[in-house]
Amino acid sequence: MAPSLSKVSVSGLGDGHNQSLLSLEGSNFIANGHVFLSDVPQNIIVTPSPYGSSTDKKIPSSVGSFVGFEAVESNSRHVVPIGKLNNIKFMSIFRFKVWWTTHWVGSNGKDLENETQMVILEKSASGRPYILLLPLLEGPFRASLQPGTNDNIDICVESGSTKVTSARFQSVLYIHVGEDPFNLVKEAMEVIRVHLGTFKLLDEKTPPGILDKFGWCTWDAFYLTVHPQGVWEGVKGLADGGCPPGMVLIDDGWQSISRDEDPITKEGMNCTVAGEQMPCRLLKFQENYKFRDYESPKTLATGEPNKGMGAFIKDLKDEFNTVEFVYVWHALCGYWGGLRPNVPGLPESEVIKPELSPGLKNTMEDLAVDKIVNTGIGLVPPEKADQLYEGIHSHLKNVGIDGVKVDVIHLLEMLCENYGGRVDLAKAYYRALTDSIRKHFNGNGVIASMEHCNDFMFLGTEAICLGRVGMLFYLLKVYI
Fold it and tell me: What is the C-alpha separation between 60 and 345, in angstroms, rounded?
């Protein structure tokens, strides 16, 4: 169930127990009597949070406020200063690549990075509390923080479509204060959970059974050349070595894909080096010939599959009884390059050229982004996204797959010009994905990957409990 929060009277926020800890006084944002942002422009709008907790462990509504602004003209993208940050240590999370975030620290507004997803200001010995700055979604717009001039913190608000514009915003940023940084984030997310109503918190969901299993992913062992015999030998090697896996993830390399120049009768399995697969598109929902041609060595009873992915999954689980779960990989749009248009058996799709926002252009160079921008994405229109996931997931469930790793998630923001903007397009896709996961994989048989952006966190986590938290599965390099 949702956090036990209720609306309270805004006019009563200054009375007794609810004496405001957070306020905008003149041109200063103040927390517990301490200025934390100065020179706040006059076009900034502040609304005290109307949400107070009705539980024993109260979240006073006075510790949080929503921030917006008024612009001179309606536009699809605004960059607006919210005040200057001077000599207060902060920690933050920002997108250093399209798909991934990392930690960043500093003390002044100029120290922030573009595409910052959250900021926590350090508490002081003199009584200033920890302060969370959390960019939000508002209507069809999404916000992030970035450095401005003269130590200003700027908020960037964008729809992703030149057809979706606005000039007034009420709640593109949430500010929350508290004495404990862990409770600070937890309390703020409880407020935003109720405010947006588009996601659920972990304690409202049931994590999948893989959570306490030792799992093995095929990617670094095989990359795109993964095949049944190799998976079998990998599991056997782990079992023989005393570390039998309880979960196996068959990563990229099992699907039927092709390039645009190939005939639709040809599977493009000559892509064996990481990066070569990114211009490819999904050709069919069924597995490629490597898994399709698997033949079980066992004599199976009449009616049971003895060939194909289903036979392989059954044999794997029968031989290695510790393997309770087998997941497979697929991209949010089906494959790296989406779907191949005009292929029988696949839903309608159109190749869309991705457009990077100014913020994304400032992120690190990425091979996947370069490839995808060059070749485009075969995008299924949002109203038919359910057909995409039904096609993939129904087949996987029929052959004994227990769940999916959904990768290449943060792509829709580059494709949304003609689909109502990034928020509306994402809502349609995440709704279809969530419905399919509930139908085929118990509502929780999914791992999110390449998903580090607040669009996904606020829109895509109604059912998803697990996500990949780093760019690499162990630290080959550290981005600081």
Answer: 55
**209-467 topology per CATH:** TIM Barrel (3.20.20)
| Cα–Cα nearest to 5, from 158, 196, 148 | 196
| pLDDT one-digit tens code per residue, 24-74 | 999 999 999 999 999 999 999 999 999 865 443 555 557 999 999 999 999
Residue partners of 77: CB distance under 8 A and separation at least 6: 156, 157, 158, 159, 357, 358
- Please name the helix (run of DSSP H) or strand (run of DSSP E) that holds residue 435, with its range, or none: helix 422-440
Could you give the CA distance from residue 218 to residue 229 in angstroms, rounded to a whole number? 12
Q: Residue 448 pairs with which residues in a beta bridge? A: 406, 467
In 10 A of CB 469, how many CB atoms? 10
In one-letter notation, the amino acid at residue 254 is W
Q: How far is CA 397 from CA 130, 227, 254, 271, 401, in A?
A: 47, 19, 15, 27, 5
pTM above 0.70, yes or no: yes
Report the Cα–Cα distance between both ends of the chain, in Å, rounded. 38
73 close to 179: Cβ distance less than 8 angstroms: no
Residue that has been written with the tokens 């930690």 in this structure? 103
In sequence order, what DSSP letters do the residues of 240-297 get, joined into one string? Answer: HTT---SEEEE-SSSEEEE-TTS-TTS--TT--STTTTTT-EEEEEEE-HHHHT-B-S
Instruction: Check: CB of residue 329 under 8 Å from CB of residue 407.
Output: yes
Q: What's the rounded Cα separation, in Å, for the pair 268 and 286?
A: 14
Collapsing DSSP to helix, strand or coil, 38 comes out as strand
pLDDT in tens, 400-433: 999 999 999 999 999 999 999 999 999 999 999 9
Identify which of 432, 413, 224 has the alpha carbon closest to the alpha carbon of residue 335. Answer: 224
Contact yes or no for 119/132 (Cβ under 8 A): yes
Domain ranges of the chain: 5-197, 209-467
Give which of 157, 184, 151 is closest to 170, Cα–Cα: 157
Give the three-class secondary structure for 379: strand
Q: Helix and strand tally (H, E) in the chain?
A: 10, 26
DSSP code of 96? S
Whether 423 contacts 430, CB under 8 Å: no
